[in-house]
Write a structure and sequence with these properties.
By secondary structure, this protein is α/β, with parallel strands linked by helices. The protein is built from twelve helices and 13 strands. The strands form three sheets. Strands 3-4-7-8-9-10-12-13 form an eight-stranded parallel barrel, surrounded by five helices. Strands 5-6-11 form a three-stranded antiparallel sheet.
Length: about 350
């Protein structure tokens, strides 16, 4: 029904407007008595065999919603009804910011991809915290970044502010230095600044009664040498793991007319490269740390491929848009059949 009826209608309109419309519709429907239970009955797969314990947390299943979808932590409870084992909110910055000028979100229908140059648009950490106080038991990841106007030399301060504010309300943290849509942000992936940033967050983490897992989200465009640096940095700073990968700036073999738009490309064109990065990190580290695999998962087979490459958990975003909520159920059912 989704791919035959709902998606063709939604895809007739501007993608960013449809995103907001979909949020409003999901929120409204979940307020109707009995609808939340009906959605859970349709899409959730409840089975102890799906449970995973990763970096000290228990996930009811290994399929999560990637950051960027629920930027402002406004719909995580309702989205969890579709069967997600966890929801990652953000990217959040200390102060709300509008992001880049519109139009900034583009569908690549022929390639089953999306290009975005959103630019960390969000309402800021304070508003998100207020909504997170209403969490009804959803396992939450907090994806944090820096404000556009904050120079890289002062970036640690922004990440620290986000960490402190979110600490009581999220289960794990994700340090996002790999978005291509904030000027110079990816320079923070270089070995020296990244080690300093992660080291400072870990020092802060150790002052807490219960330190929380900190993960690093990396770009798919890193060279093997840079990926070896990532392995060394994770080992040195003792962070909990890596999310591989963010969107790509590559535009290889695309067919859609929007292919020349600037920004980060997600979806099916990213599938093979993100899997390559997962496999490289897993092998180079001798399975030394958990990896959350994300990028181009549009089918159960795509998810299984990521898990077999070395991922402990997977996340979806663009596949959720193209394939609909049935994708989560199909992945979980396929895992149970393995």
């Amino acid at each position: 029904m989704y791919k035959l009826i709902i998606r063709p209608i939604l895809f007739q309109f501007d993608p960013e407007k449809i995103h907001h419309f979909s949020f409003a519709a999901i929120s409204f429907l979940n307020k109707i008595p009995g609808v939340s239970a009906l959605i859970r009955a349709m899409f959730c797969v409840e089975d102890k065999r799906l449970e995973r314990e990763v970096f000290g947390l228990k996930f009811k299943n290994p399929v999560g919603l990637a950051a960027g979808f629920d930027k402002n932590a406004s719909l995580f409870n309702e989205l969890s009804n579709f069967g997600f084992g966890f929801v990652e909110i953000g990217t959040l910055t200390p102060v709300g910011q509008p992001g880049n000028p519109k139009k900034r979100l583009f569908r690549l229908k022929e390639d089953q991809g999306i290009i975005n140059r959103m630019g960390f648009n969000n309402e800021g950490i304070k508003d998100a915290v207020e909504r997170l106080k209403r969490n009804k038991g959803v396992l939450i990841g907090g994806n944090i970044g820096k404000n556009k106007n904050t120079p890289n030399e002062a970036a640690i301060s922004d990440y620290t502010i986000c960490f402190e504010a979110l600490y009581p309300y999220v289960d794990y943290f994700v340090v996002n230095v790999s978005s291509p849509n904030t000027p110079n942000l990816r320079a923070l992936q270089d070995k020296e600044p990244l080690t300093a940033l992660l080291g400072q967050l870990q020092l802060l983490n150790k002052t807490k009664d219960k330190p929380k897992p900190i993960l690093l989200k990396i770009a798919p465009d890193l060279t093997n040498e840079q990926l070896m640096d990532i392995v060394a940095i994770v080992t040195q700073t003792k962070i909990a793991g890596v999310i591989a990968t963010n969107t790509t700036i590559s535009r290889t073999a695309l067919q859609s007319e929007n292919k020349k738009e600037t920004g980060g490309l997600s979806g099916a064109p990213l599938k093979d490269r993100s899997t390559e990065v997962i496999r490289f990190l897993s092998q180079a580290s001798h399975q030394g740390f958990p990896i959350i695999g994300v990028g181009g998962i549009h089918s159960a087979e795509d998810a299984l491929e990521k898990l077999e490459a070395g991922a402990s958990l997977v996340q979806i975003y663009t596949g959720f848009i193209y394939q609909g909520p049935g994708l989560i159920k199909s992945i979980n059912k396929a895992i149970l059949k393995k």
